[in-house]
Design goal:
By secondary structure, the protein is mainly α. It has a single domain, classed as MetI-like (MetI-like fold, Orthogonal Bundle), CATH 1.10.3720. Helices cover 77% and strands 0% of the residues.
Length: 277
């Protein structure tokens, strides 16, 4: 009994240390976002004082310099519609691959699974060329590219979940006169809610924070927030550290709030998908 209590106490201490280690970078960024840029380099770990505190000047400066609201609009548009496209199309694909058994569907399924292990660096130049040829270098075109890159993991997770749904439910709906499309949208899709939220959050976090793909495809013409923030770095290594810290804080707020609201659904969806797979 004492050994168990000791182990539990050690685990609590370990988790507390890990929590501090993971949260401390965010706190440091938040703290420095209220300090003058020259004081950030001199004392990055010191709390703001009367001499170093600049209020919201860094936020106002950063918003003006990078066109924050424009970048926020592009990021929201690309993230929301990319996630919606991934959810709708990969859920339908997974349902078909799971219910229609055959050599073709097995090949397609394992192709999706294989795509998860291919590093992005292997295909980024080819992808950039194809995006140029197909005129996908815009906020709408990049949604199709995100759909392709996000399909592998999403199909894998959806298929694992759908395998656990009793086929009798669909057969009952078919007897009642539902078409395949009606069966999917009125029967299957509501059941997929836990795993759909998990897939949505994972893809939203990835797309919102992605820097390389928007930079390669749409460049500086349609700046998302990660691309816009790097423009605070000037020539010869000069950078406005205060505005940079402030913009980083604003950039992480939406996705942190979204993740916090959906956290319980993520755990539920992952566990359900793992058990039913």
């Amino acid at each position: 009994m004492r050994t168990k209590k000791l182990v539990n106490s050690l685990l609590v201490i370990l988790l507390a240390v890990l929590t501090v280690a993971f949260l401390s970078p965010i706190f440091i960024v938040l703290m420095n976002s209220f300090k003058g840029q020259f004081f950030i380099s001199d004392a990055p770990f010191a709390l703001p004082t009367r001499d170093t505190f600049v209020g919201f000047d860094n936020y106002l400066s950063g918003i003006e310099k990078i066109g924050f609201f424009s970048a926020l609009g592009y990021s929201l548009f690309i993230t929301v519609f990319s996630v919606l496209a991934i959810l709708i199309f990969t859920a339908m694909t997974s349902w078909y691959l799971t219910r229609v058994r055959g050599r073709f569907t097995r090949v397609v399924y394992y192709t999706f699974v294989f795509s998860m292990i291919v590093p992005f660096q292997m295909v980024m130049f080819t992808m950039s060329k194809i995006a140029n040829v197909l005129h996908l270098e815009n906020p709408v075109g990049i949604i199709l590219i995100y759909l392709g890159f996000g399909a592998g993991l999403s199909v894998f997770m959806f298929c694992g979940f759908i395998r656990g749904i009793p086929l009798a439910i669909e057969e009952a709906a078919e007897i009642d006169g539902c078409t395949p499309v009606q069966r999917f949208f009125y029967v299957i899709l509501p059941i997929l809610k836990p795993i759909s939220i998990t897939v949505a959050v994972l893809n939203a976090m990835w797309i919102w924070n992605d820097y390389l793909l928007p930079l390669l495809v749409i460049g500086s013409k349609y700046r998302t927030i990660p691309v816009a923030v790097q423009y605070l770095q000037g020539g010869y290594g000069s950078r406005d550290m205060g505005a940079l810290m402030a913009m980083l804080v604003l950039a992480i707020i939406p996705i942190v709030v979204f993740y916090g609201l959906m956290q319980k659904h993520i755990i539920r969806g992952v566990v359900a998908g793992a058990v039913k797979g």
